[in-house]
Amino acid sequence: MAEVPVQEAAFTGFRVVWERPWAAAIWAGVGLVTSVAFSSFITLTSGPAVMQLMQMQQAGTLATADPVRTLGLLSQLLPMYGVLLGFDLLFYPVLTAAMNRAVLRPKEDGFGYFRLGGDEWRQLLLLLIYAGLGLGAYVVAIVFVVIVAAVGVVAGGAGAAGIIAVLIPAMLIVGGICGAAVLGVRLSLSSALTYATKKVNPFGSWALTRGRFWPLLGTYLLALFMALIVWLLVSAVSVAAAAIFGGGNPFPTLFNPDLTSPQSYFVPARIAYLAPTAMSSALLWPLLMTPAATIYRRLAPAHGLPTGANGSISDVFA
Questions:
Q1: For residues 43 and 260, is the Cβ–Cβ distance under 8 A?
Q2: DSSP per residue over 75-141, as a string?
Q3: Spatial CA neighbour of 191 closest among 98, 113, 105
Q4: What pLDDT does 69 receive?
Q5: Whole-number average pLDDT of the chain
Q6: Calpha distance 120→124 (Å, rounded)
Q7: Which of 47, 86, 123, 276 is close enough to 43 for a disulfide, judged by CB 3.0 to 4.6 Å?
């Protein structure tokens, strides 16, 4: 059985950035541009509504506020959420394919490995499949809780219902976390598998990861730990820069920004904080998203799978 390259996979992100600094520079630029663009979009479209809702929440009047007014404010947020969702559905598959490409087809560099083609559409289909399955599991869990609570009321009265109301959600939370961890690890190679084979195969990773759960979990936790360290360092530098350029305590500006307009949002302290934080994407993306591709590249030959192949865009599903 092929072994999981724990250290090699966990440090893949550092290696990619070290060997391809030009790609990292592009990722940093993309992270900065998208952050600025979305901050500007929010302040121009929904900023005043967000500020009013935040003020009502801080004052403790949100629950007792006029429902018509609250619904009116929430309705103003719908266009913002629609645009953000549309962007995520486009950008995440592009980013995922780029990280796979950097490991599995490193010579196809292009614009920081970013492209928009069959590989990206297959990643989108994979994402939608998992989103649908997750939504279905959530609905089943809710129905299960309602049924169990109803049975408890009928069988044991209000006292039993109270116990069940606490016990069942707690069990579901613990079981949900454990189940999500197992499924996340066992299906973690699906993106790389889909990219390499040019077939959307949401469950093919199950066979690849059989008997390798703990090494895989250790790899991902190690990568996550290093990403957390990077994030903490970048955050410390960003806060220090904000304090210097803001001329004082930066925390009110950073954690309670004025969203009523771009001018009020992009103050010097905010800009000083935003720039390094957004550009840290150049390291955080590969740290978190390339280990699975490295693991797939090591395990694929033993299963007769390609590590990178050509194929027809129209021939999508496995």
A1: yes
A2: HHHHHHHHHHHHHHHHHHHHHHHHHHHHHH-TT--TBTTB--SHHHHHHHHHHHHHHHHHHHHHHHH
A3: 98
A4: 76
A5: 84
A6: 6
A7: 47
By CB neighbour count within 10 A (0-12 exposed, 13-18 middle, 19+ buried), where does 153 fall? middle
Closest CA to 288 of 234, 230, 233: 230
Query: Structure pTM?
Result: 0.85
User: Which among 232, 227, 234 is positioned nearest to 272, based on CA atoms?
Assistant: 234
CA distance 238 to 72: 36
Task: Measure Cα distances from 260 to 51, 55, 62, 74, 163 in Å.
Answer: 7, 13, 19, 16, 46
Query: Which amino acid makes up residue 135?
Result: L
Backbone angles phi, psi at 200, to 5 degrees: -75, 110
Secondary structure class of 317 (helix, strand, coil): strand
